[in-house]
User: What shape does this take?
Amino acid sequence: MHTDKISAIHLVEILIKSKVKDFIISPGSRNAPLINELVHRENINLYSIPDERSAGFYALGMSLKTKRPTVVICTSGSALLNYLPAVSEAFYQNVPLIVVSSDRPFFRIDKGEGQTIRQRGALVNFIRGEFNIPLDEKITDYSKLDKELSIAVQLSSAPVPGPVHINIEFDEPLYNSIKKYDTANIIYHINDSVSGNNTFLSKAFIEGFNHTKKVMVLCGQMDKNTALEKILNRFSGLKNVVVLTESTANVKGESIIPSIDKTILTFGENNLDFVPDLIITVGDAIISKIIKRFLRNGKPTNHWQIHPNGVFKDTYDVLSNKITAKPELFLKQLYKRVTGIESNYNSNWLNQYKIAKKTHRDYLQKIPFSDFKVFEFILNHIPNGSSIHIANSSPIRYQQLFEPINNLETFSNRGTSGIDGCLSTAAGFAIKHHDTTWLITGDISFLYDSNAWWNKYRPDLKVILINNGGGGIFRILPGPGKIPGFETYFETHNNIDINQLCAAFDLAYFYAEDLVDLNANFKKLKRSKGISVLEIKTPRKLNAEILTNYFKALNTK
Assistant: This one.
């Protein structure tokens, strides 16, 4: 059985022949032909997520895990616009995503028709490509359509992964079916892409490195890469090199510095002795504002950026060389030609890191129960090798202050750094993950995306909700606390009963407000099934005081 909309048959067939497996549908009427076609297909995974904003982030999470494009399908009108937060995140994280929006006929646009908006171009700033499929009566060559749709699917994965928008027009009636259609004639056209990972290691790169006494390798957000981690550990042993990383870079090593902020605070942002002459960056987003200010103010002479997909961003205003290559391959070639140079750059940074670690340990021993203390407990107790998602705002920043523990693989929506879909992203990832997924979130992120639970899917997801009574980060940032109405317009303190909210969605719930409760209920959380939430209540005003004093303690060293 097929829908009688031939264009819908061709679109679905091209998607399936391109090996797309996961389709998320948000219920509607205009997308009925697509739903009708998909429910009659085999060997695909269909999901129903009512809230389009949540559905978009579910798709993002699935693609983060599978590395394949996930398709989201919506009805016409404002439904499409709700995908935009997830689409922008996928765009900046380079995650493959295919948005299929059902539309009214083009001649009905701006004529007062219900659920009709200008859908063409709605996502244009955050997509790799856009394709419009007209009404069947306007299509004269379906083989040409098949080629265009094949290009659309391929654009989501290469040369730079990201979102693609396919807008398809349907006129009524929408629910009719036909018994047969020869899908064998629908051809998926494979376009051979040329790899950009064969950058020639020129003499200039070799000489530039070998004559530089202060080299910094800075690692941004990326998937765990064992080969890259291995070569970075070799570089971290060179006297003229310091390797800095963040939790979202998923890189660690004995001489690699993972806690950038607390290390810089021990010697001060304005200390030019620690500024590199050459900075080499790998990965994507950097969380630390301190390292950004430090490098922008210090202005290294050269900045080499290495990216496998050729995505370059002049974050520090000194970008000199754009290197399209797999970083592990480029750096391996470079390391083979390193001659060695006398320098105290590596030892100076490692000495400050040692001071920072000691200050960190001493400070944690004397503080009371708080956000900071909770993070210490969590990171020491999450099982080894877990996949962990960290919500934006305070949680991701707290994690950067701790050493990498238990070989965790960290994910976070740092493309746009918003709080709007952290839960849905983690849940989507968990659906495709074969082991437990963990999520650490604040209360505002949790409440903002609570529709993540408005569906039937209950993967193995452990949610740790640190409830500090609002946007605690604004008590730390300089400025907001001085503005009248701070607690109302910045901190957004709330009195939502998290237990009742979890009960409404039939989620397992646990609670802690001190270390004794936390220890007991964390064990219960680990044993629980499906989606489970551990709410940890921390002192709203004391949290900021403890963190501020922590930064002061580092500054006195």
